[in-house]
């Protein structure tokens, strides 16, 4: 059996596309999200779908232990779960900042903490963190969201340096505009309308399968090759 792939935020969008892509390659899967039904509806062989909030470190570890008992040790963890709540810094509810920080940053760290020690002990493993172009540059109404994604870039590179001699790979994937449900989480209709106008101006955005294919490409490199960062966006996306 091929290596176990763990994917957070696997119920829709990029996570669901990644689940399908890695399943097509013959990998057993642990799919994690708050909603189980959409993950089960994917109908993927050798997959285990568990309802987990990534901010619950103990629940993450328990789910991974259950999958490893069935499929063997984690070959790759993909920290994909995230939320995008856009707003002006003087208007946005600070509770939305806390939610993004907890999911987008602590959720990633919880996933890393659940698998990294074992990967180091085995001298192999890959962790892919899904960040964003907003982790490399800023955008209007994105201050808190950018803060979380800049954090993902920083912690990934920092840990990569720490575990390089253990032959563990840390990879950042930074997509631009992708057709997902992320925008629906934003509460400001004005901001959502402006974002949708931008998408139309570009003539559409990327399909989640493009990001999934990038993850498969990075993972399938030899273990002594680390694709440290992949940035991909619609060709017409200028920023």
UniProtKB/TrEMBL annotation:
InterPro entries: KR_dom, NAD(P)-bd_dom_sf, Sc_DH/Rdtase_CS, SDR_fam
Swiss-Prot/TrEMBL keywords: Oxidoreductase
Domain of life, source organism: Bacteria
Record bears the keyword Nucleotide-binding: no
SUPFAM superfamilies cross-referenced by the UniProt entry: NAD(P)-binding Rossmann-fold domains
The keyword Oxidoreductase belongs to this UniProt entry's keyword annotation: yes
Domain Ketoreductase: 3-162
Family per similarity comment: Belongs to the short-chain dehydrogenases/reductases (SDR) family.
PANTHER family for this protein: DEHYDROGENASE/REDUCTASE SDR FAMILY MEMBER 11, DEHYDROGENASE_REDUCTASE SDR FAMILY MEMBER 11
Protein name: Oxidoreductase
